[in-house]
Design brief:
The protein is 77% helix and 0% strand. It has 20 helices and no strands.
Length: 438
């Protein structure tokens, strides 16, 4: 029986050993599970219930909130694009409202999603563009008072106080403008500034006015040098000063000296040119032609002065071209002075003109002394007549024209001096050279 079932007995023994080994391994696994794995599992499960579970619940609540507010969040995500569209269409109030909504949204949520934070941050970066657009609008010359006040009101959202806003407003209105545009530009700026900020409690406005006026005066000086009608330019400048005076920036005291300086410079230059030309004409003049002309036309030898209503130059001077040409040059210059007869320039005009007349008279006497011995008696007599024309006709005529430009009565009203004193001041005197006279 044992021999017949030997294989079965061997397999049974092997199976028994395997079972014994499996039971030992199972016992070992159970022991490891009880002593190591289960305690660690307990710890991990307890930690999951305290931290990750709470996180999952919070994320679930956040997801539910986002789902409920999906329409609002969709609009929120489109805010950067909406702000750019408002800037393009110049709807700046709407852009500021969106900016404020974005800032309020980030303040109300304690822990907003990252995508919303990124969107709000992108909107905030457009804040400088909105501010720049508002300041650019203020710098426009076509902005009206109501629109300016609205823009300043919007800009208050970007500046902590009126002082900094006032500075940026005036900075935006700083502009290189021509003399023709300056009156309206400065008048509007000062009017809008007063309406938006009230009185000026800082030096910003006075500094702005000073800079702009200096630029305007510089442009005006350029126009004076090239202007054909100084009288029309003077009227524009006077109106410019009167307009600014209504808003507290009277600049007429700066405008008048500019014209006076230009007037004196032009007078001095032209008189010098006339004196040089007189000397040239005198050296080219042949006095014998005047002798012949006087013989042909005896009436030219008289010293009759034109009547009080006749302002035409003395006709007797035609026989002596150097005198006639000099008088014509000076009258042309006085015609220019008469277009802008500034009272404060009157003393210098009289002084320059009197100096020119004396130079010309001395040049005439010097020329006569150098040529005297070469002339015949008729020519000497003609030269004496020429001197009498200069002293008794040319000089009085210039004095007469000068009194029309600067009437003693008008000068008296301005200066407060007596009419007699003013009449003595407005007088051209020719002082004959003592050397020649002797």
């Amino acid at each position: 029986m044992a021999s017949q079932n030997y294989q079965i007995f061997v397999q049974s023994a092997q199976t028994t050993n395997k079972i014994k080994n499996y039971l030992a391994d199972g016992s070992k696994c159970v022991s490891t599970l009880a002593t190591e794995i289960l305690p660690n599992l307990k710890i991990q499960v307890s930690g999951f219930s305290e931290i990750p579970c709470n996180t999952i619940l919070e994320e679930k609540e956040a997801s539910n909130y986002l789902f409920e507010k999906r329409e609002s969040i969709s609009r929120l995500l489109e805010m950067p694009w909406t702000v750019r569209r408002c800037l393009a269409e110049e709807k700046l109030p709407d852009a500021i409202k969106i900016l404020q909504s974005s800032q309020d949204f980030t303040k109300n949520l304690s822990d907003p999603p990252s995508i919303l934070l990124k969107t709000c941050s992108e909107v905030t970066t457009l804040k400088s563009e909105i501010q720049h657009a508002l300041l650019l609008k203020l710098s426009s010359g076509n902005i009206g008072l109501s629109e300016c006040l609205q823009t300043v009101s919007l800009l208050r959202n970007f500046f902590p106080d009126d002082k900094s806003l006032r500075f940026r407003y005036l900075q935006s209105r700083m502009k290189d403008i021509s003399f023709e545009e300056a009156r309206i530009w400065m008048f509007d700026t000062l009017t809008q500034h007063r309406a938006a900020f009230g009185g000026d409690s800082s030096h910003y406005l006075s500094t702005w006015v000073s800079i702009q006026i200096n630029r305007v005066l510089a442009d005006m000086e350029k126009q004076i040098d090239h202007a054909e009608g100084i009288d029309s330019l003077m009227m524009q400048a006077t109106y410019f000063g009167e307009s600014l005076a209504r808003v507290g920036a009277d600049v007429r005291g700066l405008i008048v000296p500019t014209f006076a300086e230009h007037l004196i410079r032009k007078l001095e230059h032209n008189l010098t040119q006339s004196e040089i030309q007189f000397v040239r004409n005198l050296n080219q003049f042949n006095i014998s032609t005047a002798v012949v002309s006087s013989a042909v036309n005896p009436e030219s030898a008289n010293l009759d002065f034109p009547g009080p209503e006749d302002m035409s130059p003395p006709k007797q001077l035609i026989t002596h071209p150097p005198l006639a040409l000099y008088l014509n040059d000076v009258l042309t210059l006085l015609n220019f002075v008469g277009k802008c007869p500034l009272t404060q320039s009157a003393p210098l005009v009289i002084s320059k003109l009197e100096g020119s007349v004396n130079k010309v008279g001395h040049e005439l006497e010097t020329w006569g002394s150098s040529e005297w011995l070469t002339w015949e008696p008729k020519e000497q007599s003609e030269f004496n007549r020429m001197k009498r024309y200069f002293i008794h006709l040319l000089v009085p005529h210039l004095d007469r024209i000068l009194r029309l430009i600067y009437p003693p009565l008008s000068i008296s009203e301005v200066t407060g001096l007596s009419i007699t004193k003013c009449a003595e001041m407005i007088q051209i005197k020719y002082i004959r050279s003592e050397v020649i006279e002797s």
